[in-house]
Design brief:
single chain, five-stranded antiparallel β-sheet, 179 residues, 5 strands, HIT family, subunit A, alpha+beta
Length: 179
Amino acid sequence: MPEPELVRQDGVGVVDALQRLWTPHRLAYVQGDRTPVGDEPAGCPFCRLVDMDDVSALILARGKTVYAVLNLYPYNPGHLMVVPYRHVPDYPELTADETVELAQFTQRAMTVVRKVSAAHGFNIGMNQGSVAGAGIADHLHQHVVPRWGGDANFMPVLGHTKVLPQLLGETRELLAGAW
């Protein structure tokens, strides 16, 4: 690893000994440029994904009422979402069949991720409404985030950055193949 630059050549910023890890691809997410406006299915990325091929859409598996897709902005490798095909914003609006299949896909996702990457645990949940942190509030989706001991190291705490050791396409291939 190269020695950190201790003296800034441009005279801008604070002089420190920290290395910088740049993730410019996340800027669109941070600024909200990729977040749909309105509640119409035509503007919803989850509704648009179902018409794409699975590899391009990062879809892992399709069921009768829900599908599993990798998160384009993952918290950890293997971070996926279970999404109903039907464009509904709120959990109580799911039908009984959608609720059951969403639960079954969540169980299957955990089994597959454990098999492929030996996850130690999981965070599973839904952010219901934009005030609760939902980036796409108008189309319900459940996050399945694999966790490993020590995965929440100093990077997100001090550097507000996650280091992902695998490309999304590689993660999709492993998980879809094991599904």
